[in-house]
Amino acid sequence: MNNSIYAHFHPDEKSFVDRVQEWLTRTVVQHEVRRTDFLDPRQQFIVQSLINREGHINYRFDGGHEEAERKRAIIAPEYIDVQYEDTELVVIEVTSAHEKFNELDHGDFLGSLVGLGIKRDKIGDIYVHPTFCHIVTTKEMATYLDIHLRQVHRLNVFTSILAIDKLIPIHAEIEQQQFTVSSLRLDAISSDAYRISRAKIVEPIKAGKCRVNWKQEEDPSKLLRAGDVISIKGLGRFKLISVSENMTKKGKIRVEIGKYI
């Protein structure tokens, strides 16, 4: 691959870029139809960017419903209509007779899956409801989970496999906030968003616990733009919705964010 391609991506993404390029080569040369693992939005962007550069390839993303965050891709030669290709997604429904089931959260379910030795890219979005949980996965992985997933955070659970059209997603709620900042630096906006001092917010960023648009970011001085999604492990996630073009009389910048709740 032309080394100039890497300039468009973070150095840590080089191995994924190489993997995607291999998929595309096999699609063009060997006429292969590929169903990928689940990709986060940043990885989806990379796949889309490289396919647009390559040309002569059809593709689509599917995560079970339109607003899904993690999606599987189908990549195929241009003469194949991928709209009619099965993405082979199903739902694992998890229930329990225990009264404390409604206290479980997303991290509890994800932790149990990881505890079974399952890699994150084998699982799509996880939707936790008061009396059940829907986990999007592939037909192949669903069989394994249906046999082995028997506890979540020490609670005994039952599982069943459902067709993907039985998925009941949860639509993310966003709490909007407006405030002024001295600059559009990552640490400045995050400090106000999480209501943590600027000195303390720098620590998790430099420790590699921060992601901007699903890409690890360790530079507190990185300038943000409207549309960026920021997450810091243990603190949650927010989106920078808008940045005012007009400064306040004191030279501050008005911003609006949306915190995922």
Descriptive tags:
15 strands; Structural Genomics Hypothetical 15.5 Kd Protein In mrcA-pckA Intergenic Region, Chain A; 26% helix; Ribosomal Protein S8, Chain: A, domain 1; alpha+beta; Alpha-Beta Plaits; four-stranded antiparallel sheet; 3 domains; 6 helices
Shape: globular
CATH topology of the largest domain: Structural Genomics Hypothetical 15.5 Kd Protein In mrcA-pckA Intergenic Region, Chain A
Quaternary organisation? single chain
By DSSP, the count of extended strands is 15
Average per-residue pLDDT, rounded, comes to 93
* Largest sheet entry: 6 strands, antiparallel
Helical residues, percent: 25-40%
| CATH H level, superfamily name of the largest domain | RNA-binding S4 domain
Class by alpha and beta content: alpha+beta
* Secondary-structure arrangement, i.e. CATH architecture of the largest domain: Roll
Note poorly predicted spans: none
Widest β-sheet, arrangement of strands: 10-15-14-13-11-12
What can you see in these coordinates?
- By secondary structure, the chain is of the alpha+beta class.
- The protein is 26% helix and 33% strand.
- It has a six-stranded antiparallel β-sheet with strand order 10-15-14-13-11-12. The protein has a four-stranded antiparallel β-sheet with strand order 5-6-4-9, with helices on one face. It has a three-stranded antiparallel β-sheet with strand order 1-3-2, covered by helices on one side.
- Strand 5 and strand 6 form a beta hairpin.
- The longest helix is centred in the N-terminal third of the chain and has 17 residues.
- The mean pLDDT is 93.
